[in-house]
Write a structure and sequence with these properties.
By secondary structure, the protein is mostly helical. It has 2 helices and no strands. The longest helix is centred in the C-terminal third of the chain and has 34 residues, at 33-66.
């Protein structure tokens, strides 16, 4: 489970980084506030996912070490 979770976390982090760039561009270009809010939500959700995936990796590592 750990390698898969680490792989997914890495891909989510890469996507979040990309979305942060899109968000910055949207703000700089003065795009619609609704679009900016949706991008902010997506970035926040991505950060939450990376935290949950990191917790999953730590938990599986601890369980594996205990067995």
């Amino acid at each position: 489970m750990q390698p898969g979770a680490l792989d997914v976390r890495g891909r989510v982090l890469a996507d979040v980084l990309y979305l942060e760039g899109v968000l910055a561009g949207a703000r700089n270009r003065g795009l619609a506030q609704e679009l900016i809010e949706r991008l902010e939500d997506a970035v926040d959700h991505g950060h939450e996912l990376t935290v949950l995936l990191a917790d999953t990796v730590r938990t599986t590592a601890a369980l594996h070490a205990a067995s």
